């Protein structure tokens, strides 16, 4: 049984719709495709007779349509019919039918992008290899015709477009000049645009490729990032002909913003913000690179994620890492500035890069009970480092840590993981995560002579704060200015703070917090008692133990409780605020000698 072999029939309208909706980002790419074809034609002519001088664009005007001319290699009648009539065919191939890496266009569909802005394309061309001029006219309905011209055309090609009404603005002078500059300002052949005031050349040298002095490269970086770069790093990968500059940002980029690189292929803009060229960790630079060996996707708006791109990413990243490592030797002042600006991102980075971590970690800072300290100074002074996992834990126990020890606040982003990893970076350093209740157990009780009075104080003060769900203990803390600490297990503390915050927020967030509380209760938070640790070394506390007036005693204990809450940066619920106001009001009344006429509502025994 035999079957006829038939050709696919291509619906050009469907192809144009596919290009505009699914391959290209929009109709503005028509000019990029024309520029790259013209540039390739000039490169091809250089191989034939050494000719080819440039590209000239005449935008849409009142007296004519859009025209782009080049004096490149041109096309014969046979080439026009063969290449332009077959979707997907490309002339940029060698004798083995392999894509030519020295040409920009390799997909043979670039010309079709013009149908996104025009229903009719006219191409007039004459080949440098000889033969008459030829005219190809194609329509968006899928028809075309080819005729030989009697008139003698100059060697090269001109493309004529009559715009669709909805895209006419893209072919007018202002838009054409901007598009030509965006896509082709660094092309190696001159590109001129005929503007109302005269011709304007939009091509210029590429500062990021070493074409110019250091001031030109710095000025380009200032234009790129909107500020003067902190430094400029040369990056390259010779095997793929990839090179450029990375500009160190003088400001911290917004969180979660991906690394972005302006990428050119053969000096033609490929992607304004490519995230594949540099490693994700290189968040602190904005780079500009040009490559002759990386492969673009069919849309020429991104790179093919292949082994070559992975190798480029690794090598360019190594160059940026090397810059960071050398800063300590060549420019320590710049390293200090760099760390100060990008510290948060660097703390994230060192968790994934051991080589960089060994160097940069010494320069990072953490908050401690001795103030903000560089980690290098911290490990030099303290071989054993203790840290609190959360800010709440740190605030609770920072006041009771002996001056001879150091406690690190690990509650800020990445800090706890960073401190926990110190033994791997500094083998003679040990670390310990503190436990809040354990720190309380380390405190000394009052001296034996005062033990009875301290126990009585615990009982009386505990009775006053019973309705607040707070127990009272008395310990001797070696800080005489400290009256007391509000201390709780972190799990219990979170439940209590959620309860306080819920009373403040209400509405939607109150409902969310209620759901969290329900889940926490199911997990075992059914005994949310905390402790107020009174400092027996403080004069107010010792005096309070001898106060017999229950009104004065109760109100003072309540104020010490509120003071401890505020010192620990805990939110005050409505009940806490009411308790504070009542206690202050009553103490003022008592100190003024008001007894019979003042209502002491919450006292168990009136004076």
What would you note in describing this structure?
The chain is an alpha+beta fold. The chain contains 19 helices and 21 strands. It has helices at residues 12-23, 29-48, 77-83, 173-184, 214-225, 307-330, 332-349, 354-360, 375-381, 391-397, 415-420, 422-425, 436-442, 451-464, 490-505, 507-523, 539-545, 550-567, 574-591, and strands spanning 55-58, 66-70, 118-126, 134-139, 144-148, 156-163, 191-195, 198-201, 231-237, 242-248, 261-265, 268-274, 285-291, 365-368, 371-374, 384-388, 407-409, 430-433, 470-475, 484-487, 530-535. A hairpin with a 4-residue loop joins strand 9 (231-237) and strand 10 (242-248). Helix 6 crosses helix 7. The chain is elongated and about 120 Å long. It starts with 11 loop residues before the first helix and ends in a 16-residue tail after the last helix.
